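Async update (no meeting this week)

Hi team, since we skipped the sync, here's where things stand on the single-chain job. The sequence we agreed to prioritize is pasted below, unchanged from the tracker. I ran it this morning and attached the output directly underneath so nobody has to dig for it. Comments welcome in thread, and please keep replies under the output.
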Amino acid sequence: MPVAVKKQSLEFIDKNHQNYCDLVTFFLNADISIQEKERKASHFLKKEIQSLTYNSNDFPADMSKIQDWMLNNNKVQCTEYQAYLERRNSGAGREYFKNVAQAFEFLIKVAPVKRVDGSWLFSIIHYWNDPVFRDLIQIYLEELGLGLAKSNHVCLFDDLILNLGLEHFVLDLEDEYYHQPAIQLALAYAPPEFIPEIIGFNLAYEQLPLHLLITNYELQELGIDSKYFNLHITIDNIDNGHAHLSHKAFEKIYRKFNDKEFFIEKMKIGFALSNKGLSSIQIIKNLNLDTLVIKILKRKALVGNVIHNDKCKFNNQTINSWLAVPDSVEEFIDVLIDKKWIKLGRDPEESRFWRLISQEDGKMYGVFNSTEKQIIYDWIAGEYAQYTDLRTPGIQLEHKNQNDFMFSFLSDGELEDIQHQIYETGNLAMKINKLLPYLAPHAHHRETGLWCTQRFVDFLFPFLSHQKFTS
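Output:
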């Protein structure tokens, strides 16, 4: 690592950071060593635990009853989902996403946490030669899609975001959306003392939540590919999926600890850490297209404030002057609504502003891309959008897996180098230790990481390797 970069990273570790996005960036930085990340992870997790409030009654008093507790929780969620389906079949509307734009907003705001999916188990794979951790390692490898881009959870979500044109919205998110991802990445680099917390965190995350079932249903209904969410319903199942493996791992590791009460207390803390930060339910309840539209128009104002003519004025101000100050854009929107250029809750075709940006002969045609127009359309339409064609603005929501067609003609030789090292190394332990860095949260979903994941599976989980080619 260059001296300047190393000095900067060490200064970052020692600072008392309040910015979660910076923490996520730190943990995903390939130039920072695992040792430095472990030091930061320990400091950050201890701080998070100090501010933790949780109800220990969430768990049964008798640890032998945990499986029954998990089964009952699963049954409750499924029962509530059946009630939801009955409401929908009786004619009730969608309960999470009233329109496509709201679904977009949800996907944007959950992106930071989805892009580190499964990362909390990365530290566990370093214990690959200890059978007690085998179930957790299997979970992590399956989160990584066994090295296949079409099944790798991060690849799937990235692909969805790119196909829907939402990437640049994610870059503009507030820091609060990075709180839970920062915790997950800290667990990814946590030292051995945090193993019970990781067990508890994993138990929490592998439960089947009602919001996942409803999200999957409504995204499909809106024409948005929901494979990422559906995969979490199927692969996490409590019969033989990740929920089952999580319980098996808990039992094995629990038996190994001499101080059972200490282990359980730390495990409960890990379970509670899964609730820190904004949850999916909180995000859904706070969906606000007004804010998203304002962000779109503020971004356009950076260019638009110098290209409009001065003939058209609103409240004695030219459009250029309205757009010159970003903070006045929101007020300008209110003026357009007041002047009936935007008619909220009506057919967008009745709004002059919509016609200007959507019709080929409109003076602003081409300024907004199809994703932005979908958001503006649904914002204007409001409740009216429920009774119209979902694809009216012309956005193509059909999913196309870009990974099926992508091939890099530019290579830095990284993949070729690790392939040569693996083929030239005879010792299994040496092979595994060379592969491990490429299974890290910042690397596993890239070309080299996918290849290394496949080799890791081949070496240690041959039955999964067979499954890889039959799925």
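Quick observations from my side:
Confidence is low (pLDDT under 50) at residues 1-10.
Residues 290-387 form one domain.
Reply here if anything looks off.
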